[in-house]
């Protein structure tokens, strides 16, 4: 086998092995990211579904409380109206409610003996519920109670009951007001929440019975007998948990409503769809790159073998045409036989060959060293890119989860209190005012979310449209200095300031620079304890103004310093009052002013943030 062919095959093998290893590494890392995104999506869906079910249960509890305070119900228990009249009133109320949501099965009143004495269903009259656990618990605790899934004694249908104590003027219990819901209608509240293409939700009550299932015929059955692969998922842990078998990935979480379990079933084959698709593309592009690598190997082998062949031909030619080289080789052989290793460097032909070989060797070593350095740099950049993509994906999902939860909570409160105001039930003025105030507070919270997140994010991406103008440095800096003093002292921190400013000009967007300063200042107050020192420095340094804030707060961890100015990044992920945008927006604004944000921090000892703005001569404004 020829030299060139050996070199070509060796390079091809090395390149193909390297490409295969790199492709599989990229595939495994990408597959992990895709599966993590799927898991995060499932987690978000199950949390959304839980909120909707909890909201339904809370709504029914509120309506049962309103029913318990109904004037006609209290008059009935005081023997002021007849059973027939109350039954007609309850029937009218249920019909009006079912016009919008057809999930009410019955409205009923229970006396102190646990017997139904008023109901919209004639068959339910005088049914004894005294042995029901939720009835006994409501009488004992004087609180609203929601049952697990029940079998109605009238028609054998699956129901869920909610009861609330009814009090007289002396705050004595006169009975219970109850609402019965059709259990199968719980499916309608979560059917729009997809879990992949074929995944679905199941609700299991505290006794292990299926309360909601897409196959309504399974409602009321024991879950362990109907769902293969699960033995016991009841848990005291409030966090999200997962398990799996050969077919499904099970994700479940305990709800606050009666310790019910909200369960999702995701076919495992769906989790692998994206990974398989990704693997296909990896093989396709890997094949294309491999073909290219083979042609590259052929080209490279020609470049490597060409000088070697040239050297060989040169030596052969020198040997055949130069008797002096023959003599040198002959004498060398004799010297080797006599154990005397003595080449004669005085021979010009041999010296030229040796010099040429040495130069070729050095050139090849240099090229291989460059190739090795480039390869290491490429691997490092790939790792950094993968780590950055993983961090961006995690932060974005976390941000969307927090934002959607805040918006949904405010909307839920607005709808709940608005429903109370427009209902037909009589409310006193204090209650109406409280409902109206809650609606106003929730709406104001939504407005703050819009201002803090949506407007701020738009501003961060439109910083090139800054409206810069010449501003007198002394007046502007003096305003920031006095504002800082008032802000810090209002939050019971100790202000220590240093102010020194001339008469030069600043060419800035005044509003946005104030926003940068407020972001840094609010962080200094937010992450420090009361009665600690905060140092504010605004002074001139050469032809620049220095703006610096130093605190004695909690500091920043080393692992967080690299990402502290990234969008959505929060050092404390449990901080619900922050969306991780302040420093990102500040950095974006400063970049448009040919500046940047700088900081140094030590964990447990505090942080210092500062930035610079260029000063302009006072006469430049007229120019």
UniProtKB/TrEMBL annotation:
The chain crosses the membrane at residues 7-27, 278-300. Gene3D superfamilies: 1.10.287.130, Histidine kinase-like ATPase, C-terminal domain, PAS domain. Keywords: Cell membrane, Kinase, Membrane, Phosphoprotein, Transferase, Transmembrane, Transmembrane helix, Two-component regulatory system. Residues 402-617 form the Histidine kinase domain. It catalyses: ATP + protein L-histidine = ADP + protein N-phospho-L-histidine. Its main location: membrane. GO terms for molecular function: phosphorelay sensor kinase activity. SUPFAM superfamilies: ATPase domain of HSP90 chaperone/DNA topoisomerase II/histidine kinase, Homodimeric domain of signal transducing histidine kinase, Sensory domain-like. It is a multi-pass membrane protein. One of its GO terms (cellular component) is plasma membrane. It is found in: Cell membrane. It comes from the Bacteria. Its EC number is 2.7.13.3. This is histidine kinase.
């Amino acid at each position: 086998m020829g030299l060139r062919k050996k070199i070509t095959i060796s390079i091809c093998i090395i390149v193909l092995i390297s490409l295969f290893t790199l492709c599989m590494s990229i595939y495994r890392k990408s597959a992990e990211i895709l599966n993590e995104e799927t898991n995060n999506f499932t987690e978000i869906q199950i949390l959304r579904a839980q909120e909707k079910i909890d909201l339904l249960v809370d709504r029914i509890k509120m309506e049962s409380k309103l029913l318990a305070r109904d004037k006609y119900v209290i008059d009935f228990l005081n023997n002021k109206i007849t059973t027939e009249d109350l039954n007609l009133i309850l029937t009218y109320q249920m019909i009006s409610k079912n016009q919008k949501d057809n999930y009410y099965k019955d409205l009923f009143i229970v006396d102190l003996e646990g017997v139904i004495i008023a109901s919209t269903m004639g068959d339910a009259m005088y049914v004894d519920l005294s042995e029901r656990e939720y009835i006994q618990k409501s009488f004992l605790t004087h609180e609203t109670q929601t049952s697990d899934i029940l079998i109605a004694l009238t028609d054998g249908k699956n129901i869920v009951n909610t009861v609330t104590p009814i009090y007289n003027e002396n705050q004595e219990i006169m009975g219970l007001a109850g609402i019965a819901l059709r259990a199968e209608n719980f499916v309608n509240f979560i059917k729009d929440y997809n879990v992949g293409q074929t995944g679905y939700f199941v609700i299991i009550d505290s006794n292990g019975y299926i309360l909601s299932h897409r196959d309504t015929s399974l409602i009321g059955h024991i879950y362990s007998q109907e769902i293969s692969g699960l033995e016991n998922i009841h848990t005291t842990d409030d966090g999200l948990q997962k398990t799996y078998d050969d077919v499904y990935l099970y994700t479940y979480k305990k709800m606050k409503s009666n310790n019910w379990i909200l369960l999702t079933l995701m076919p495992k084959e769906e989790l692998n769809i994206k990974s398989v698709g990704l693997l296909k593309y990896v093989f396709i592009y890997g094949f294309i790159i491999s073909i290219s690598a083979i042609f590259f190997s052929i080209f490279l082998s020609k470049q490597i073998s060409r000088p070697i062949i040239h050297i060989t031909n040169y030596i052969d030619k020198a040997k055949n045409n130069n008797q002096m080289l023959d003599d040198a080789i002959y004498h060398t052989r004799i010297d080797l036989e006599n154990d005397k290793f003595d080449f004669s460097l005085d021979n010009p032909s041999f010296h030229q060959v040796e010099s040429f070989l040495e130069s070729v060797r050095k050139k090849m070593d240099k090229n291989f060293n460059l190739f090795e350095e480039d390869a290491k740099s490429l691997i490092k950049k790939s790792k950094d890119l993968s780590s950055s993509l993983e961090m961006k994906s995690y932060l974005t999902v976390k941000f969307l989860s927090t934002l959607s939860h805040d918006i949904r909570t405010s909307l839920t409160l607005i709808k709940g209190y608005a429903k109370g105001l427009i209902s037909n039930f009589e409310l006193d003025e204090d209650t109406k005012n409280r409902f109206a105030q809650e609606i106003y507070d929730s709406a104001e919270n939504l407005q703050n979310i819009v201002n803090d997140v949506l407007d701020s994010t738009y501003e961060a991406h439109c910083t090139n449209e800054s409206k810069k103008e010449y501003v007198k440095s002394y007046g502007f800096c003096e305003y920031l200095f006095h504002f800082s003093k008032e802000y810090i002292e209002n939050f019971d921190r100790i202000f220590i300031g240093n102010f020194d400013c001339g008469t030069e000009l600043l060419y800035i967007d005044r509003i946005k620079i104030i926003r940068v300063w407020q972001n840094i200042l609010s962080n200094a107050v937010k992450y420090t304890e009361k009665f600690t020192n905060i140092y504010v420095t605004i002074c001139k340094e050469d032809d620049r103004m220095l703006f610096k804030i130093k605190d004695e707060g909690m500091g920043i961890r080393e692992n967080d310093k690299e990402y502290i100015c990234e969008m959505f990044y929060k050092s404390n992920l449990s901080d619900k009052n922050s969306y991780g945008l302040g420093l990102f927006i500040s950095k974006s604004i400063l970049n448009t002013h040919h500046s940047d944000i700088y900081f140094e921090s030590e964990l447990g000892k505090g942080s210092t943030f500062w930035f610079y703005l260029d000063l302009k001569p006072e006469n430049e404004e007229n120019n």
